[in-house]
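Milestone 3.1: sequence recovery, worked example.
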């Protein structure tokens, strides 16, 4: 725009009209931003900070959009060519003042966003003294949690006390996975051979779903985990009760191994209450053993240690080998899979 165009516009009372259009656009856009449910509930301290940052950026975007849209709409009407006007427009040589303005304002806004985001990241990464540590192991296609401060208590549900910061130390047994609970906003990759970490401070009691957010194979879509946010007293009761219960052996141990090794996310098996559909239905193991022409127990043992030795038709060859499990755990798993929970 040139001085000529600007002064022509100002003469037409353009500033007032552009301001009015900008206010209308801003009002409509703000209503769309506020009244449509764009985000899941914010149920952690970290999520509150991230949302504050998000709304700060959104407010800036609405402001910029309103000004641009208003100038645009006004110009379309005020400067349109008359039907019989074939003359060239006035020559344009730029406007130094305008260019400095539209460089300086975005510079200030983007710097402000950068500073606020850095503060949010630093606060969310800040570890408090009384935090709870939980180790997270991701594998195709299940989540496993270990509580080092409770005798390495294991769980496939991530149980967390409310209003206490938890540090999740994560790694993967096989490929890349990503831990994501939308209501907590925090998301972090699980990388084989590395330990990553992220903090969450849940602020509401209830159930949440962990969705693996990194394409990790056929079962990626079903790699869902459960989070249960509990009162501190209930959490203590669970943690102390469970850490003594895991000492037991026999079929109960087999069932715990079945759950803790993630078998349930791919297989159906009634005694474990498992309903996975990726791999063969383990309620039909006797039938599969017949098809493989092997005794049931030997067949089950082989399928755990060397899953591709016999492939049930109709199912993909994606199961990892569990031959590195300790021998007594394999025995317990075989016992559980051949005799059920009885
Ligand atoms: Cu694990 Cu996707």
């Amino acid at each position: 725009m040139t001085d000529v165009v600007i002064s022509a516009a100002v003469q037409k009372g353009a500033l007032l009209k552009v301001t009015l259009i900008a206010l209308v656009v801003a009002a409509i856009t703000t209503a769309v931003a506020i009244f449509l449910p764009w985000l899941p509930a914010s149920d952690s301290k970290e999520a509150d900070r991230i949302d504050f940052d998000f709304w700060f950026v959104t407010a800036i975007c609405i402001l910029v959009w309103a000004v641009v849209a208003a100038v645009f709409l006004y110009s379309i009407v005020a400067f349109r060519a008359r039907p019989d006007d074939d003359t060239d427009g006035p020559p344009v040589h730029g406007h130094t003042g305008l260019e400095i303005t539209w460089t300086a304002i975005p510079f200030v806004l983007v710097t402000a966003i950068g500073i606020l985001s850095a503060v949010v990241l630093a606060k969310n990464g800040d570890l408090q003294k009384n935090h709870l540590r939980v180790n997270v192991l991701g594998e195709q296609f299940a989540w496993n949690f270990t509580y080092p401060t409770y005798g390495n208590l294991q769980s496939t549900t991530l149980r967390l006390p409310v209003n206490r910061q938890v540090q999740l130390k994560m790694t993967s047994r096989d490929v890349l996975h990503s831990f994501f609970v939308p209501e907590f906003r925090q998301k972090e990759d699980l990388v084989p051979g590395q330990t990553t970490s992220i903090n969450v401070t849940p602020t509401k009691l209830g159930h949440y779903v962990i969705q693996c957010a990194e394409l990790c194979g056929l079962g990626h879509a079903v790699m869902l985990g459960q989070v249960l946010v509990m009162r501190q007293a209930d959490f203590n009761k669970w943690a102390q009760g469970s850490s003594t219960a895991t000492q037991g052996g026999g079929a109960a141990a087999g069932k715990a191994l079945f759950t803790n090794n993630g078998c349930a996310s791919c297989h159906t098996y009634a005694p474990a209450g498992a309903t996975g559909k990726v791999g063969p239905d383990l309620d039909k193991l006797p039938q599969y053993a017949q098809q493989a022409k092997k005794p049931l127990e030997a067949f089950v043992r082989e399928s755990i240690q060397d899953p591709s030795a016999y492939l049930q038709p109709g199912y993909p060859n994606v199961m990892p080998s569990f031959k590195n499990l300790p021998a007594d755990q394999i025995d317990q798993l075989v016992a559980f899979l051949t005799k059920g929970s009885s």
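The mean pLDDT is 88. Residues 138, 141, 177, 212, 214-216, 220, 223 surround dinuclear copper ion (CB under 6 Å).
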